[in-house]
Every structure is written in C-alpha cells, then in structure tokens.
Amino acid sequence: MFRNRLDAAHRLATRLGHLAGRHPLVLAIPRGGVPMGRIIADTLGGELDVVLVRKIGAPGNPEYAIGAVSEDGSVHLEETAREYSDDWIAREVGRQRELIEERRRRYTPVRSPIDPAGRIVVVVDDGSATGATMAAALPTLRQRGPARLVAALGVAPPDTLARLETLADEVVCGEVPERFGSVGRFFADFDQVSDDEVVALLASGHGGHPSR
C-alpha cells in the first residue's frame, strides 16, 4: 500500500493539513516513526521530538506486542500477557526500561524532552497491529496537559483504531485493512531505521529525512 515510510508520511501530512500553521509538536515513536515524524513536522510547520515507548514483544514473536513500557516508567499490558510468567514479564520490562534510558541519552543528549503542555501534539508511528505501543504513549502524554492529542499511524486494523479513538482527540491512519498480519507487509520498502538516522533527523531543522 505504501512505497516506503516517506510515502506514508506524505499521505498522513495531507490528512493532517488542518494543523498547518498551528505549530504542532510532533512526537515520533522510534525508530520507524521518526522519518515519518520529520516530514509531518516540516510539512505542518511544527516541531519534532520523540516519545520513548518500548513494546514488550511475545516470546518467539517480538514484533507482536503483549504490552509496552513508557518513559515515565509506567507499564501497559495486554490481555494476552496473562499467558506468560510474571518473572519473564518483569525481566522484559526491566530490559526495555534500560533501552529507553539509553535511547534518551543518545537521541537528545544536550536538551530535555520538549514539553507538550498546552501544545497540539501529534504522536506518529509507522503502524500498529495491536495498538499497545501507542496506547501506552497516549495516556502518558495526556497527563502532561496537551491542548489536543492526535494519533497518526501509517497502517492499522479497524479494531486497533477503535481502541485508540478512546485515548486520543483525533486518530488519523493512512490505510485501514481488515486483514492485517504485520505492519511491514504494507510497505514495499520497510528497511530498519538506525539510531544514527534518528539522531540526524532530530538534529535537522527541516527536510533532513533519509533519501529512501
């Protein structure tokens, strides 16, 4: 459905055109959401930062989220997490918290995260099967007092969007297939985004997205 993440980002930016000129804060979920967030922020005349949330992947299937951990330390678990031991989940939560701390040190080493209070906030990800990561990010951000909270995804199934609509003021999605599977199958090019690319995108004021 998309050539790549940049194609998905341009489509979402068009759908979010009503926010142009209102200086939204675009918070991308690393790593795949960051190239998309750069384009959306530049197109809307906004500001880019990251919201650090890490999924808890199922054993043997790490792309399938059974929960997520937010930067504030809060943990959100799906119903399916009951199938796994408390000890295993606790170890995975600890591991993901360490990765979040490491990423914050690397991504924004010389400044604090941008405050969303009073801002129009757009949370961006390339897609979601279960919505667990976005569902962890939105309540965390809501507590910090944004004027409006928007969830923007490249692709997600209908039931995931219905869930996110209870957590955000607006949900925008590029494609909403009934039969889902995984996010990557809806992108012709779904290459991994590196930490170095994320750092470069956050440092660039505009148009600093990778050529792909």
From TrEMBL:
Source organism, top-level taxon: Bacteria
Alphabetical list of SUPFAM superfamilies matching this protein: PRTase-like
Pfam families per the UniProt record, alphabetical: Pribosyltran
Keywords: Glycosyltransferase, Transferase
Keyword set includes RNA-binding: no
InterPro entries found in the cross-reference section: PRTase-like, PRTase_dom
Name of the protein: Phosphoribosyltransferase
Organism: Halomonas alimentaria
Lineage, broadest ranks: Bacteria, Pseudomonadati, Pseudomonadota, Gammaproteobacteria, Oceanospirillales
